[in-house]
Every structure is written in structure tokens, then in C-alpha cells.
């Protein structure tokens, strides 16, 4: 074959790919840049300032929404990850069993059913409970978030379990280790990176949720994303950019950490 | 294994599954059944429902009865929203394919150790907040936004182009937020691609276009189908993107559903519309599973 003829090359593909990367990042970069704008516009640059970060930081609604977001995400992460670890232990390394398809469909349901449908369903269901019990606290949001975080926590944990060697646990059991001891001393230490990865995905997913939160929340229970959604109806100042940038930073850090965590296992 | 041991294993398996299933039944699947029941009731005056059995909600999903003449006809308002949702979702899938396929191919043909980093660049936007990405597009295309400011400054246009609150805006936004969902599966199918097949094609005097069409594309097809479904399904149920970029003027199914629980005060209709959306999504998923199954048989 003639030198310089690259069989892999397709005319124009590299250009489209580069355009894609620019398109993916340009809007986000602009959003971040304008969060540092000294003026009140999100399109006309008037010099650098931290002004909008200070505004957001001192905004009591933003403070309350931030704390609420973090509380919900933390609870949802703990609940979803614990459930996912147990479910992954039950569904891997033992072959299929009766009801496997049912379990699989249940766990993945939040990924298949459109979010708006789940949101509506929860709105109706929780409205009934709210009327019956009079309780309108954060529990509804926490349990709703826990449910849709389960598949995200489950996937990396299951992948990790599938890649693990059963013989170590068998050896431990041959040495008369109790099931709990074997789990804690042999299984859990190996499973840890998977659990961490699953927990991080769950946290990011909970932190970013808009639709279900918007429908389930009671009055005065805004999280950061629903607060932002409400703000978008008004004249937008770079304050929203500043909040967005802070949220973006958390997600990006967690996703990059997740990426390297799950890559190391290969 | 003895009978008793099997029984013990089964019991401990379901005990381990119990917490996850309990949470999912309580806050995901169970409430769907209540939606089904609600869709057969009549609306209450201030939201909620009256416990009277009725087909009205399902009837008004696509039909309507004229208030004065009692004539029965199609509900044009609803049908146009259904049509817009399906049309925009198909166009989103097409648009993301046009941009996503070359991108996935580009990444798959990079040296092995660099592919992961390229993929990370695709994955990062996917895991960042959908609302924030939609907001970023909004800032780009609004009347006093970046694009219009730039065009005005360059003297290409005299007054801002109205892009926000149009179908174009929704299409652009959805293609932007769902692009990674197209790239990921296509990349997965191209990653293990055997390029000696391409070499064979060239040895037989095929042109680049022909090799792409007859060799590469057929083998990437499962990824393309998966990507199209992954983009189509969330686009059809999209709520945030059409709300922010359509501005309440260009409703999609998700917004029509929300309307019934807000100003519309017709919960049964909202329930029936939700289940209709769910049914369309399920049909798409089943078609996908079938298509994926067939592909496996053919190549296996």
C-alpha cells in the first residue's frame, strides 16, 4: 500500500469530531466566563469580578437550597448505595435464578421510564400520603432520589463484583470464616472501589435532578437546580452563572475521580 | 446442592434484594399503578380526583367533544403536541447521529492509550447538570445572547434573530444535551472494529465512501440503533429543555403533562397522557431489543 494512505481515515470525520468537541464545550465555557463578569449582562463582558459569587454566597435562598441539595444527595447516596451493594451481592456470581428478569427490570426501571412519568406518579402518590399523614418533610424527596439513584449505584458495583475472584472467599470459608466475617474481611475490601464509584454516581445524579424534585417538593423545598429553574423565568443575571459554575465544578471533579477509579481496575 | 441449601440460598438472596426492591416499589414502580387508576377517574375542581369511574381522560388524550355541538373530533391541540414531540425527537436522533458518528469513529481510530481521554471529554458534559447545559444554550441564542451580539457586531444582521422560544431552539438544545448518548454506543461498537476488513475493501478497489457504507457502517449498526433509541427516548419525554428553550410557547409532551397538574387541573388526563408517553417509550424499547437480538443472530 502506498505510503501516507491511512486506511482508517475518512474525509471530513476529524473536522466534524473537532467541531463536536468545540460545540460541546463552548457554551459551558462561555457560561463559566460570564460568571466572572463585572456587569449585569450574561453576554457583554465588562471586566473581571467575583461580584456574582459573593451575591450568590450571601443569597439566603441559595444558601438554604444548597444545604437542602447536599442533605438530600447525601441521604440518597447512602440509601441507594447500601441497597445497591446488597442487590449486587444477590444478583451476581451465582448464575441466574427464578425472578432474575423481574429484579433486573425493577432495578433498571428508573432508567427506562421517562422521568416526567415517574415525577407525575410520585406527585400523585405522595399527595395522598401527605393528606393522610400531614407530614410534608424532606423524606419524600430523599426516598424519591434514593430510588432513581439505585441503578446508577448498582452498575459499577455489579461490574466490580463480576470481575472479582470467587476463590478467595471460598478459601476464607474453608478456613471456617463466618459469612459476615468473610464478607467484611475478604469481599468488602475488594469491592470498595466499586462502592465508591457507585456512591459518586449516585451523588452526582441526585445533586443534578430537576424534574422529579420539581414535582415532589413541597412549598419552600427548593434544591439548587429547582431554584435555578425558577430563576430562569426572570431576567437572568450572572448570579445564575456563578451557581452553575459551582455545581459544574462539583460534578466534573466527581466524574473525573470516577473515571480514574473505574479505569484502574482494568 | 441439597434441597435445604438451595432453599437457604434463595431465602438469603431475596433478603439481600429486599431493601432495594422496597425502595423501588415505594418510590418508582408502585406509584405507576396509582397513575393507572387515576387515569380512569374524573378530575376534582381544585386538582386531585373524584372517585367516579370514567373513560373521559383516555378519550381526551386524542379526541375532543365540541362544547356547543357535541360533535366528536380529534383534539388538534394535543395531536399537534404529540406530532411535535415525535418529530423533534426523531430530528434530534438524526442530528446527533450526523455529528456523533464521525466523532465516535474519530475516537475509535485514535491510538489505544489516548481513546480513554477523548471519551472522558464526551462523558464529562453528559454527567454535568442537564439544566445547566440547557441554560448555557439559552444564553448563547437569546436575543441579547452571544450569537446575536456577535452577528450584530459584525454587521451581518441589523436586528437580533429570534431563536429562543422556537422549535429550532428545542431541537438545538436536545441535540446538545443528548449527543453523548449517541457517541457512547457507536464508539463501543467501533472500538473493537477489525480494520483489516477495511484494508480488504481498499484492496478490492473500493472508494472511501464505499468502504464506509458497505464495511464500516453495517458493523457499527447495532451501536447506531442503540444510540438512536438512547437519544429518542429521553427526547420524547423531555421536560426541562422544552420548558426553558420553548418558553411555554412550543409545548412538548412533558410540558403538556405538567400543565394538567398545574393550571389545567385535570389530573386524570395528565395520568392518561403519562401512560401514553410510557407506552410509546416501551414500544421503542421493545423494537430496539428485537433489532439488537436480530443483529446478534445474524453476526453470531
From TrEMBL, chain A:
GO terms for biological process: transmembrane transport. One of its GO terms (cellular component) is plasma membrane. It is found in: Cell inner membrane; Cell membrane. Keywords: Cell inner membrane, Cell membrane, Membrane, Transmembrane, Transmembrane helix, Transport. InterPro entries: Bact_Polyamine_Transport (IPR051789), MetI-like (IPR000515), MetI-like_sf (IPR035906). Coiled coil: none annotated. It is a multi-pass membrane protein. Residues 66-262 form the ABC transmembrane type-1 domain. The chain crosses the membrane at residues 12-36, 67-90, 111-132, 138-157, 191-207, 242-261. It holds the Pfam family BPD_transp_1. Required for the activity of the bacterial periplasmic transport system of putrescine and spermidine. Belongs to the binding-protein-dependent transport system permease family. CysTW subfamily. This is Spermidine/putrescine transport system permease protein PotC. It comes from Lutimaribacter saemankumensis.
TrEMBL record, chain B:
Pfam families: BPD_transp_1 (PF00528). It comes from Lutimaribacter saemankumensis. The keyword Transport applies. Residues 82-288 form the ABC transmembrane type-1 domain. Keywords: Cell membrane, Membrane, Transmembrane, Transmembrane helix, Transport. The chain crosses the membrane at residues 14-41, 88-108, 120-141, 161-184, 219-240, 269-289. Its main location: membrane. PROSITE patterns: ABC_TM1 (PS50928). It is found in: Cell membrane. Gene3D superfamilies: MetI-like (1.10.3720.10). One of its GO terms (cellular component) is plasma membrane. This is Spermidine/putrescine transport system permease protein. It is a multi-pass membrane protein.
